[in-house]
Amino acid sequence: MQKSAILLLSSFIAVPAFAGNGGSFLGSNATTGNVANNHSIFVGATNPAHIGLAIREQENVRFNFLPALSVYTEVGAVDNFVDDLDELIDILDDPSTTDDSVDEVLDRFNGLLVTMGEEGYLTTKVGLSAPLFPFYFRSRPLDMVFSAELSFNGSVGMRVLDDTLRFDDQNNKFSTNTSAYVKSGLETKLAFGGSRAFYNLLDGMDVYAGAKLNIIQMELSKQVIALQQMNGESIEDVVEDAYDENLKSSTNMSLDLGVSLVAESFRLGATLSDINEPSFDYGAVGVNCSDYEESSISRSNCDTATYFVQEAGEIVSQETYTRHALLTLDGMYRLGSSLFLSGELETASYDDVIGRENQWYSVALAYESGRYLVPSVRVGYRENLAGSKLSLASLGFTFAGVLTLDLNYGLESTDVDGDSVPRAAGISLSVQEKF
């Protein structure tokens, strides 16, 4: 499973035509956000208080019929980023691949590498839920709704560690320590939650509370890949080959708490996630380099990592990823019998598993047709208030009441092969059933 996931993620890095939230949105949440509605099967994805809203009063069971899949990709504001890297790799391998003079190559790439180091990155995230999950069950004796979730999330991020490009007259070769810095995280999460209305604030206005225990297995890996040692190979191939070298797996638990004020015309929610702030270790880079064969690519990459750790100070050798506690606010307002306005806000910035800074908010308008022959429609807007500061427009449909398709399109663009493409894009697909 893990090897297949990293192959899938690596393949997306090779597609520059595509560039949430720190994690992946599944189903219609890719447009609306993880808000307090009972239309999405993933209503309890963030706020466990919403678990109690996942099943209508006359229903006892609800589940996701088939696996749900989401993919999100983001690219830095560097035009032709991947193409330029590939061209530099070719020149390092064989200077005759360019018609430019030595001075022209040095002038071009030494300016470009600095920009790449500041802005050049690629991020791809894939989310997948297991069949039948999330699963909701109403216990009438306890007057509670319980949930079980089994999901997989994968993230791959690549950025450039820039260094001066030099030319060796004696060997007629270009050289540089410039490297691709690749971080990846594969998460398997099993979660159990429960929610119920515990206080009647006013007539027709209830306060729901919920809790969720998450059991998380995290596989983290990072690699420094010296462009000088690529030997004509593509970056994604090297990522695949070196992925297992410093992979580290660990398991931890986290606790989420949530409350939601539920009335006929509106819902307001608040979530405090990862209260205990679980931590997971990355495999180290730039250590024990003598363990590798003297002339091997692995030894060269290890030595290059040591350079960026000890001399350049660009990265750290030993690294721990911590899921810091986060307060998230959400709300939904009913504009009519079938029209809903919703929004979600993360109240602080945080680093995701691959070190990208996030703080997202979203707003959306959804029309729920309630009929199998008329699709439900939703439109939304999402923006990262930290890090990349990117924004996305979203459009989603629910067909026959069970099939959801949601698309995210970045509003900022970059150039690839002379064409303007969005810096971010995403898609989410799910089939859900309810009884």
Strand order of the largest sheet: 2-3-5-8-9-10-11-14-15-18-19-20-21-24
Major β-sheet profile: 14 strands, antiparallel, barrel
Q: How many strands?
A: 25
Shape descriptor reads elongated
Helix proportion range: 10-25%
> What percentage of the residues does DSSP assign to strands (E)?
over 45%
What's the number of helices? 6
Termini Cα gap: 31 Å
> Helices and strands: which structural class?
alpha+beta
Averaging pLDDT over every residue, what do you get?
86
Q: Which stretches of 5+ consecutive residues score pLDDT under 50? A: 1-23
Give Rg in angstroms. Answer: 24 Å
Plain-language structure description:
The chain has six helices and 25 strands. It is an alpha+beta fold. The chain has helices at residues 2-13, 29-32, 81-93, 102-119, 235-242, 297-311; strands at residues 61-63, 69-75, 121-129, 135-139, 144-161, 166-168, 173-175, 179-202, 205-226, 248-263, 266-273, 279-281, 320-322, 326-334, 339-346, 350-351, 357-358, 360-367, 376-384, 391-399, 403-410, 413-416, 419-422, 424-431, 433-434. The chain has a domain at 2-25 and 45-283 and 319-325. Helix 1 (2-13) runs antiparallel to helix 5 (235-242). The strands form five sheets. The protein has a 14-stranded antiparallel beta barrel, surrounded by four helices. Strands 6-7 form a two-stranded antiparallel sheet. A two-stranded antiparallel sheet has the order 12-13. Strand 6 (166-168) and strand 7 (173-175) form a beta hairpin.
